[in-house]
Each structure stands twice: as C-alpha cells, then as structure tokens.
Write a structure and sequence with these properties.
about 325 residues, Rossmann fold, 2 domains, five-stranded parallel beta sheet, 12 strands, about 20% strand
C-alpha cells in the first residue's frame, strides 16, 4: 500500500513538476507578443473617419508588437499632461489636422511626430520647422487635381473659385491655381471679403457661368453651411463642382477627392515602423489612400456624361437613372 501511495505521489509530483517546467519554459523563451515599443495615437475628434484611421493604425502596429494608446485631443487639452512623459513614448501620431496642429507646437523637437488625415500639412507648419515629422495628406496638388478635371471634362474652358484676400493660405492657393492653370482655361476668382458675404460671393460666382467651380480645403471659406449654399446654387445654375473631400461629393459635388481612412492609417503605421526601426529608407510625405469620387446622380441631373475611364477608377456615389 505504501508503495502504491508513493507511486501516486510520484506521479502527482511529476505532473506538478512538469507544469512548473512548462511555465518556466514560457518565461525563459522570448514571447512573440512581447511589447517592443510605445506609440500614442491622438485623434482630433470622435468622428468616424478618424476612428477608422486609428483602428487601422492600431491593427497594423499590433502585428509588429507595438503598443498603442488612443487619446482624444480634447482629453489632452483638458488634462495638459506633462511633456516630460514624452520620453517614454517613442512616437506620437496625430490623426486629423487639429491634433497635428496641436502636437506640432506642443511636443519637444526631439520627439518624432507622424500625421495622417490632414488636409493641408504646410498650412499648420508640418513641412517646415520640426525635423522629426512625416505623414500623409488627404489631398493632392493643384496640378494633379487639374489633371483629373481635364480627364473628366476634356472640353472645359473655364473654372471658378472663391478665395479671401484676408487669408494668407487662400491667396497662396490662388497663386498656385494661376501657376498651374491650363492654357486653354479661363479663371474666374471671386473674393469673399470684397463681396461682403459668402452668399453674395456665391451668387457672383455662379453668374459668371463658368464650366466648373473648384473648391479647396480652407476653413476660412468652407463650412457645412457654406458648402450647402454653394451646392444648392450650383445645382440651380447647372454648374458642376469639384469637391475637396468625399463628403463634399456625396453632398452634391460632381466629382472630387476622397481619402480612405483605413489606407491612410495603414500608411501612417508604416511610417511609424520606419522610425522605430530607424530605417534609412524612411518615406516622405505622400498621399496614399486618396482616390477620386464621382456622384453619378449629380452627373445625371446636370446632363453630364463622364468618361468611363474616370468612372472605372473612382469611388462611385449613386447610379445613373
């Protein structure tokens, strides 16, 4: 009996010892899920596109064992965390223009900053001053936008735009438009400041009977209310609009740019990985995830037939009736 009890005890001891050894084995062998780096993601707001970009970032970085912490810009502004903590965070990622603007001027120059979902990086100083900054914009150059318009409307002879003399960015954009304006086009530019109000400026612009109204991402000109007013006026006067965002096109512009938040997030994650790995082939500012959007319902209402090559490569909104 004693021997039998001893045998059972030995088996129990062996089983326990095996479990201990197994645990020690897991402790000794490097785990593939070991956290190697820390990155903070700051979203400008809880808006859906920013969240989508953040989710794509988190997912891509998790595959590289990079720990991320998602923070809203509002939380940072309210709490004003000590920037001495930045030493523990290797990279900060700004998602959206407001977050990028805030972090660009708040973080020490020694901290790396990556941005995505930003409409105008140059306007908020992301392309000058700070050395450790790289990111991806949600737009393309004026020249590239005009190339898209020429493909979509090869017989176009004139475009119109709104600008403000009181806005340095607006005047700079006007200069850029004049620089890249095709020789066969005529430009009609209306100064909102000189007009006295946005409503008057819009009416002056549509009365010029241009072939297309071109818009730019400028908060001094375009808000939800002014976008709505411009689109209503354009439809009444049968004038197509080139929108600076996918939501603009969805609201009633004929065509325009459309940034994919998930692709923007994935690209930003690759920039973070380049920084963490100290890659010598670090990517510079680019515009991946920016595609073309067309609204075929608007095209039908305006009696415009867009080329199949344009429709084929665009994010299509609506269907022809």
């Amino acid at each position: 009996m004693a021997k039998m009890k001893t045998g059972r005890n030995e088996k129990g001891w062996i089983r326990s010892a095996g479990q201990v050894c197994l645990c020690l084995l897991f402790l000794c062998v490097p785990c593939s899920a070991e956290i190697l780096h820390n990155v903070n993601l700051v979203v400008s707001s809880d808006a859906g596109p920013y969240r989508e970009a953040a989710e794509a970032l988190e997912s891509a970085l998790a595959e590289q064992n990079v720990a991320t912490r998602l923070i809203t810009l509002e939380a940072i502004i309210q709490r004003e965390p000590s920037l001495s903590l930045e030493k523990k965070t290797e990279v900060w990622v700004a998602i959206g223009s407001r977050a990028a603007d805030y972090l660009n001027f708040s973080l020490p120059d020694s901290v790396s900053l990556v941005y995505c979902m930003v409409a105008d990086p140059e306007k908020i100083g992301l392309k000058s001053g700070r050395k450790k900054v790289v990111g991806v914009s949600v737009t393309t150059s004026v020249n590239e936008q005009f190339a898209i318009i020429r493909q979509a409307m090869p017989n176009l002879l004139s475009i119109g735009m709104l600008y403000r003399t009181s806005s340095a960015k607006s005047v700079q954009t006007l200069d850029e438009v004049l620089k890249h304006l095709p020789s066969s086009w005529q430009l009609e530019a209306v100064d909102v400041d000189a007009a006295g109000s946005m409503a008057v400026a819009i009416q002056k612009l549509v009365r010029k009977k241009v072939g297309m109204i071109w818009t730019m991402a400028d908060s001094s000109i375009y808000t939800r209310a002014t976008v709505k007013a411009l689109l209503l006026a354009s439809l009444r006067n049968q004038t197509p609009v080139f929108g600076f965002s996918g939501s603009f096109v969805k609201a009633g512009a004929l065509l325009g740019l459309d940034a994919d938040p998930r692709l923007q997030g994935q690209y930003a994650a690759s920039l973070v990985q380049n920084i963490l790995s100290q890659s010598k082939k670090q990517s510079q500012s680019a515009t991946p995830g920016v595609t073309l959007a067309v609204n075929l319902i608007v095209a039908d209402r305006l009696g415009i037939s867009l080329p199949e090559e344009i429709i084929g490569r665009a994010h299509v909104i609506g269907q022809n009736k």
